[in-house]
Amino acid sequence: MSQRTERRGIHVDQSDLLCKKGCGYYGNAAWQGLCSKCWREEYQRVRQKQIQDDWALAEKLQREEEAAYASSHGAQSHSQSTAPQPHPAHASLGPFSKFEEKKTNEKTRKVTTVKKFFSPSSRTASKKETQEGKTPSPSISRHASFDTDQVSKDFVDFLKNLHKTGREIHKQCRAFIMSMSNKKDLSADELSECVQDFYQNMSDRLMSHFKGSSESVEQVMDQVEKYIMTRLYKSVFCPETTDDEKKDLATQNRIRALHWVTIQMLCVSMDEEIPEVSENVVKAITDVIEMDSKRVPRDKLACITRCSKHIFSAIRITKNEPASADDFLPALIYIVLKANPPRLQSNIQYITRFCNPSRLMTGEDGYYFTNLCCAAAFIEKLDAQSLNLSPEEFERYMSGQASPRFNSSEGEWPHTDPALGVTATNPVLSQLNHNLELLSGLSSRQETLMEAAQSLQDDLISWPKTVQQEVHDILEKYPLEILSRTVSAIDANNMDNDHLPPPLTPQVFAG
Description:
17 helices
């Protein structure tokens, strides 16, 4: 442990988050470090080259097959020239014609896909075909149907403000959804390409309509993305043609195996003993878990953004200064390890494939999402050096033979602080003990309050009796006596003047 006096920590140069081609946009590990724009260009270039290579190889194989066929059947063809027989090239042209047709369709897929979206024939597709598929359960179907209906209603209400343009956008979106319902056999990359082509085509049309107002185009595209992806969510999220589910299980198992990683090992600048920091940590964990419940890529990105902002707040409160980018990534890794978000890889791939590319290339959403991808990649490759541990310690922790809370070299648990009663090296037990102390204090305060309330109740019950007893004692000690009194009339013969009131007392004057 003495060898690790200087903690290296986790550091990612901000230039590593940008596109490797130097365009200035944020890159993505799923796109080999490229942004969405450069990745599509590279993908189309490689795909076109592969089509050309396959075409050349097919022509070469066809020529070799025709030459072999001609050399083996040349004599028979010459001797039986007058007899009817099939053309010799039919045997070889049959397989090649299918191959040629497949490559031609693949080569022109982009053009035909966009044309189909806006052609009248695509809007006359039978509604029965769009309703095919097995419903998982009545309750889930009702919930999904309610969400879809609400989104459709909100989308129509939004487009009413655009009048004729809004009606055209709605028709194009419905036609696109119908055409996508017939493309269930496509791979995830091909589905992504179809959606991204539609986004690009729609964005170009809106840009010309709004005369270059990017803000108006972004508002409409957000609503288009919400409507389309809500309707297509079940068919494009974690499709069976990918290994997303396998990656999800591998990531979850990896995070479970790293449950022993502490906040000190990652050099995270957060003090969870501070109530405000602990509250922000809980909110960040909640947000990153909530990401899986959202259907729209933009809503999933919003969860990531809220999570990241809570992390920045926790770091700022701990350090009493603004958080830096070097502080953010280790904290995000720590939050992901604590949360173990469900279907993390599937959600990352879903956002990568079907989100509006402008959101991933620039802005805070793109920055936070790029950091989340880096965090997921770091967790997959996390090793002893990343955690400032020796390889032996790392292997013991991963195998469960030891725990960072247990001092294996001395064979005993670390000493605790008698004043605090907590283990300094174990923040979990420290927090647990702190919570128990708070509960104990609340319990004693509650007992004192209950005793005071009971005493007050007894006093209120006994007070009337006490007052009655005091009144009774006073009456017994000082009984009330009422004396009879005779009042003489003014004109009476009784001359007892002493009983007259003072003003009426006769006065005698000397004569």
